[in-house]
């Protein structure tokens, strides 16, 4: 077995793909730094669940309106014949 330490580092790099090294020859690892969220991502994080909840709450109302309009349109076609 060669005494070359590069194969050890290559093996570690292959297993821990998402992590970054602190230095080229160090055996210490650290997870990637997280970026601080900006205003847009914070607003989206707050309002996305609210939007989904409102969509689910009003879906039956929209379905009912669609059914009424479909029946109205289909009924007016029958009267013309």
Would you give an account of this structure?
64% of the residues lie in helices and 5% in strands. It is mainly alpha-helical and 81 residues long. It folds into 2 domains: 1-34, no CATH class; 35-81. It has a two-stranded antiparallel sheet with strand order 1-2. The radius of gyration is 30 Å and the shape is elongated. The mean pLDDT is 77.
Secondary-structure map with pairings?
Elements: H1 6-15, E1 20-21, E2 29-30, H2 39-80
Antiparallel strand pairs: 1-2
Measured distance between first and last alpha carbons: 91 Å
Mean pLDDT: 77
Q: How many β strands by DSSP?
A: 2
> What is the number of independent domains?
2
**Would you tell me the structural class of the helices and strands?**
mainly alpha
Number of helices: 2
Which series of helices and strands comes N to C? HEEH
Shape: elongated
- Stretches where pLDDT falls below 50 for ≥5 residues? none
Measured as a percent range, the helix fraction is: 55-70%
Major beta sheet, strand line-up:
1-2
The amount of beta strand, in percent, is under 5%
Largest sheet: 2 strands, antiparallel
Counting copies of identical and different chains, the oligomeric state is single chain
Q: Measured on Cα atoms, how large is the radius of gyration?
A: 30 Å
In short:
The chain is mostly helical and 81 residues long. It has helices at residues 6-15, 39-80, and strands spanning 20-21, 29-30. It has 2 domains: 1-34, no CATH class; 35-81.
